[in-house]
Amino acid sequence: MIRRHHFLRGLAAALALGAAMPAALAQSSKPIRLVVPFPAGGATDLFARTLSQKMGERLGTSIVIDNKPGAGGSLGSDIAAKATADGQTLLFTTTSTHSIGPAIGAKLPYDTVRDFTPIAHVGNAPSIMLVPNSSPAKTVKEWIEYAKRNPGKLNYASSGNGTIVQLTAELFKAQAGVFVTHIPYKGTGLAIPDLVAGQLDVLFDSLPTGMPHVRDGRLRALAVTTLKRTPLAPDLPPVADTLPGFESNTWFGLYGPKGLPAEVVNRVNTAANQALSDPEVRAKLTTLGIEPVTSTPAQFAKMVADDQAKWKRIIAERKIVNE
Fold it and tell me: Angle at Cα 235 formed by Cα 232 and Cα 237, nearest 5°?
């Protein structure tokens, strides 16, 4: 009788706990929709697919990727922001939607702070400073000296106005105190031939797309844009060695709609951090040129706030517009 009494008490407690759990936790077999506001096949999409598989295993459910590209990522982000806050719809996004977009004054259909619940900062993609082989500069210091000797005569390429590529170059110009002309392209891939030919003087390209041109000897890499050396390119010094504090990364993160229960946030955050510690996941991210990052929701929120403030300052000071 005593054993039966304890069993019934334990069963009642378990049922009560299950009733108190958010629906997303109580019904772990129901697939989670992960909105990716960019096209399939890109770095953001591939990162999301790599991470979601391992996260799903830890959450005891499948995670279905839902690509919703358009309007610079704001279309998919808005869909996620307006979803029910039950943990069944999450957002996998990056710098452009939550740091640069609001900083550049874009008319977004959501508020990046009010309408989302931060869950986890999951990775960074650094850039590298590329110059043509004909450049007289072999180091960042030499390039700055070269630019100061030739004010207004040098140029830099970007993937368009208001992009992380342009903002990184403008941040560099501001800290180095140099005057270099901006030449926008519709993607850095279109700028590479002109850089190789010596018609451009510098490009801050993403590491995975820029490094192959360095390895095959077509271009010279001077530095990475991470605050410290990165294992993705261990031989390259950071720009910060020359310009203290210089840092520019494309970050990746997980959000939920506003009002997401703390239990759901913590469970998804734990699953993401565990997945990012998996050797298979880390190896795949290395091939994508992405450094895995683990964080708490609070750390993620602060990082995004600091990042947005940095770019907002640069955008205002350099009078950058998103054309």
Answer: 95
Q: H or E segment at 53?
A: helix 43-59
Tell me the C-alpha distance between 291 and 301, whole Å. Answer: 19
pTM of this structure: 0.87
- If you ran DSSP here, which 8-state letter would residue 238 be given? B
CA end-to-end span of the chain, whole Å? 77
CA distance 138 to 237: 12
What is the mean predicted confidence (pLDDT) over 66-72? 94
Which run of H or of E encompasses 223? strand 219-224
Site of tokens 């530095």: 223
CA distance 131 to 274: 38
Cβ proximity of 195 and 266 under 8 Å: no
Position 67 pLDDT exceeds 80: yes
Distance of CA 10 to the CA centre of its chain: 45
SS (H, E, C) 25-43: HHCCCCCEEEEECCCCCCH
Mapped onto helix, strand or coil, the DSSP state of residue 65 is strand
